[in-house]
Each structure stands twice: as structure tokens, then as C-alpha cells.
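For reference, the entry.
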Amino acid sequence: MSATPTPIVTRFAPSPTGYLHIGGARTALFNWLLARGGPEGSKFLLRIEDTDRARQNDDAASAILEGLRWLGLDWDGEPVSQHSRQARHAEVAQALLEKGGAYKCWLAGEDLEAAKARAREANERFTSPYRDGAPGEGPYSVRLKAPLQGDTVIEDAVQGEVRFPNAALDDVVLLRSDGTPTYMLAVVADDHDMGVTHIVRGDDHLTNAARQKHIYEAMGWGTPLFAHVPLIHGQDGKKLSKRHGALGVEAYADEGFLPDGLFNALLKLGWSHGDDEVITRAQALEWFSLGGIGKAPGRLDPDKMRNLNAHHLQALSDEAFVERALPFLGDVTDAQTAMLLRAAPFLKPRCQLLADAKDAAGFLLAERPLQITGKAEKPLRKEGATEALRLVHDDLSSAQDWSAAALDLRLQSLAETHGLTFGQVGPPVRAALTGGNPSPSLGETLHALGRDEALPRLADRL
């Protein structure tokens, strides 16, 4: 009988000092996919690393949660506040002291800086004289008693075997002299108590993994599986920054990305499944594994991101497209909403982002009488334009079938019946209907506008 698969427990642990940036969102996505695609009982947990009270920003913490919700990354249970667990962190530090895995250090201030400087000058590891020396007096910090020789080996699910010479890893402070925990202690205590089995995070934390492994081992705890993901770079190969167009999730939403579109774009930043590019949420849940994460940094390509979003946008139903596009269109009447629904099949292929709908639907949203000037007015000034408009207006007034295909055929037949080329009929009709705004075929344009809007627009030019 095969053993029941062990549930996977992952976590996303942002610091609430800014909004949910693109790198953090990708980390959250990978953790979410690993847990949601894992065996029954798997969990995706959320922890707010708010121990740095000077940098704490409640608005930023709320924005991070909102960004996760918008992306559709739900979490299990309530978010854990790291700050609220300080008593537990101090308890673990005390346990380490009792186990001999940590020691009290009275070195501080100028004396500490001088000792570190001497170690640097001698190209030696800094080691506190209190590690094995006589105790001091007054306030003290608690330092990890890390191994001095050999290597610390991390079997990383992305990076492979990574070795760190212990001579290069100093005895990190676990508890400051004021009793507050450091990041290194808090993270290990929290991950252990939360039952985290897989730690998926940026490879800028790889050195931290070695130090954190020492804490796990000193406490006699099992070490989670580490997976350190290469950071995202710009197209120039340099570390991602705002100059590369790196934005917070809310900024991408404001640009008109769909949650599924940004989800897909984030997924492709460093992870792959064969040659698949357009990937649905269901496919991602089925296919995702840590083995698909590459060792090379993902590169942020705004054009590719918009192209992926376009595929997801075109997959929307007409009703969903209009509903999501409306916030980008300003005040829209019920009649215009009806036009947008009729036009949706023609509008979706013209949009990469929801914000593009404003230009794509400009011909629908223009108010009568249309202001037609410059080049847009040129077809209306040509000889015979008014007569062509009158023929079209009169003929369409009796049209029963107002479908795009039927209207296209009717216009072509009208031109042939009156001995006109379509070049004599089409341009003035398009100008009168759209005011020079980009539009699909004339049949599609007429169908989208509807009889009650199209005929009056033509009549305005007679």
C-alpha cells in the first residue's frame, strides 16, 4: 500500500513597507501554486513580517492583502503578525541558550565595531570573546553559536547543492539587548510553528538559509525544503528597478491588466512548461512544480506581458469584457453599454489591456453631432459624398437584418446598383459614422452602433 502524500505548507511573508511589487507577487504565486496543487491538506499561509516598527505601514499591509486578493491568491487562516509573536521568539532564544546553541554577548557599541574591524583587517571570521569566555555585566544580546569549521550544505530545490564554508558565517544576533528578536530568529521560529514544509523565496535569501539551518539544527527541528528562485531582471540583464517598468500589482491593475493576464505573466518570469506561453490558472495548478523553475533570472518584458494579457482578454465572454472595461471608459449610458456589448467581438482583438478599450470604442462613445475635422473630414468633402450618404441612409432605413454580414452585403449591393465603386461609398459613410475614430468593417460598425444611432449619424451629414 502506497503511503499517503504529505501535505505541503508554504508561506508568503512580505514586509509591510511598500505595496505588493512584482517580485513579491511572483513569490506569492509560486508558493500558492505549490500549495494549491499539492496533496490534500496542503496550505498557503500568509505572514506579515512587521517586527521593524519604525518602517511599519498599515496602508501598505492592507495594499499587499488587496493585491493578493486581486490576483486571486487566497490564503488559509488569518494572516500572522510577526510582531505579535515576540514572546515566542524570546522563548526560542532562551531554549537555544539552554541547549548550548546560543550564548550571551555583552559586546556592543564602539567595542563591537572595533572587534569587527579587527577581524576584517585580519581576514578572519568575527567571533565574540564571550562565545566561550567569562560572562559580562549589564544588558546582553543573544548570539547563535554557529559551527566554526566545515561546510553548511543546502540542498536547494532550484539551485541544487549549495555549500557555505562555516568560517564565512558569523554568529548572528538572535535577540537584541533590548529583548527584541532579529529577523533571523523570528523567521525560523515562525516557519517552524506554522508547520511550513517548503520555503520558496528569492535567491537573495540563499545565505540566510545557511544561518537559518543552524538555528533549526540547534533547536532539534526538521529543516524545511528550500527553493531559492532567481530574482527578476530587466531586459538589460540588470536587477529589476522602477526604471525597468517594475510596478506594484495595483499599478498593473490600473493599466488594465486582467488578474489572469498578470498571473500568466508572473508565472512565465522564471518558470516554464515546455513551449507553453498562454497558460490558464487551471493549467498552472496542474503543471506547476519547483522543477520548472530555471536557474537564470526571469526578464521583465512589458511587451510580452501585454501580449499575454491580450490572450486572456480575448477569452473573456462579451459580457465580462464590457463589465471589466467600463471603469476605463468614464461615464457610459445604457445605450452605449448596449453598443459595447454588440461591438465586443470586434473590440476584444483590438485590445491588449482593458484601458485600450477607450480608444477602440471611441467611435461608439462619441456624442452626436460628431465633431469631424482635419483629415477625418476629407471623405465628406469629396464630390458625390453627400449623395452617397443619402443613398445609404435611405436604403438602410428599410433594412430588416441588422447583422454585420448582412449590412456589408447590402452596402456592396447598393454601390453596384447605382454604378458606384465601394471607394465612393465606404469612406464618407465611415467618416459620418465614426468621426475618424478607428473602427472595424462598416458592417460591424453599423451593427455595433445599432439602427437608432447609425441612421441619425448619417442624417447629421445630409
User: Anything to note?
Assistant: The chain has a mean pLDDT of 94.
